[in-house]
From TrEMBL:
UniProt xrefs under Gene3D superfamilies: 3.40.1190.20
Transmembrane segment boundaries: none
Pfam families (UniProt xref): PfkB
Domain Carbohydrate kinase PfkB span(s) in chain numbering: 60-235
Highest taxon of the lineage: Bacteria
InterPro entries: PfkB_dom, Ribokinase-like
Name of the protein: Carbohydrate kinase PfkB domain-containing protein
Length: 313
């Protein structure tokens, strides 16, 4: 029987009482330096500035970030990512072991691992602050190949759901690998979930490079404004239900019957429309407010939504 509650209510963003299903994740893995600047706003900086603030280096990337949350829901989580060959490689492997995820990493000899820097400035007016994310140009993940995917086919075919994200679309090489993974999953009866990131993907790729993946997916997670721009549909302004104005465009512009989790609100994290070709299944609050830690919240919601979906939602 399908759960009548929203994913935020059951299983909720803090993990499931019973871990079920197998998740196979394809995405990025690397090292990220994170810092928050509680006393600085980027817009106010007019000269060099030294700030003492919370900062840390950690293993991150789209695949690792989702896996870190998903292990609280799924009985098995495997991660396929293309990584470099340096002193950080074992650190990445060790973190996957620590969180309880399976290591399907593919190492590219002689290249460094990807490194990113995430800075968030002082909140203004109660908001989350502005995030600046600097990512190493051409990280190893952009060179994940179809052969890498075929080498992991057994793991994909044994999963209940394959999770992919849009960063792999940014390179023709990893884009082909993504489609190879989706074909492998569909041929084995494995569901395909796709997270439409980066949120400015419309400025980086033509819609023709993105639409085939949307149409290959059984489930798509996206911010409303990202999809509206990608499809060339002006984002409607107005009342609290304005995201619903995008729904007819999804049916007209995207073939197939993917289930859409459409995020919207003041920071595009507060509310979700669950929609599938002509049927608005529900609208719900994620529980995100100004007092909730923003970093990782989207991955927590994605993990709980995937579990809810596989459970009959």
């Amino acid at each position: 029987m399908a759960p009548s509650r929203s994913p935020a209510e059951w299983p909720g963003p803090d993990g499931a009482a019973e871990r079920r299903f197998a998740l196979f994740v394809i995405g990025d893995a690397g090292i990220e330096v994170r810092a928050s600047l509680p006393d600085v706003r980027f817009a106010d900086l007019g000269a060099d500035r030294l700030s003492y603030a919370p900062a840390r280096a950690m293993v991150a990337g789209t695949a690792v970030n989702l896996a870190r949350c998903a292990v609280g829901y799924f009985r098995r989580v495997d991660v396929l990512a293309k990584v470099g060959d340096d002193d950080y490689t074992e650190t990445i492997r060790r973190e996957l072991r620590r969180i309880g995820a399976g290591d399907r990493l593919r190492v590219e000899p002689g290249v460094p691992n990807g490194v990113s820097v995430m800075l968030r400035d002082r909140p203004d007016g109660g908001g989350p602050g502005v995030r600046l994310l600097v990512v190493q140009d051409e990280p190893p993940g952009r060179r994940l190949t179809s052969d890498d995917v075929r080498a992991a086919a057994e793991g994909i075919e044994a999963a209940d759901v394959l999770a992919l994200d849009g960063y792999s679309l940014l390179s023709p090489v990893s884009r082909a690998a993504l489609h190879e993974a989706a074909r492998t999953a569909r041929a084995a009866g494995v569901r395909v979930a796709f997270d439409l990131v980066p949120h400015d993907v419309d400025a980086r790729l033509p819609a023709s490079d993105v639409l085939p993946m949307l149409e290959a997916a059984d489930l798509v997670i996206s911010e409303v404004h990202t999809l509206a721009r990608l499809l060339g549909r002006p984002a409607a302004a107005g009342g609290p239900h304005e995201p619903r104005s995008l729904l007819p465009a999804l049916d007209a512009d995207v073939a197939g019957r993917p289930l859409w989790f459409l995020r919207f609100g003041a920071t595009s994290l507060e509310r979700v429309l669950a929609y599938q070709r002509g049927r608005l299944l529900m609208e719900y609050s994620t529980g995100y407010t100004g007092g909730v830690r923003r970093a990782g919240f989207g991955d927590r919601m994605a993990a709980c939504e995937l579990y809810w979906w596989l459970s009959g939602g």
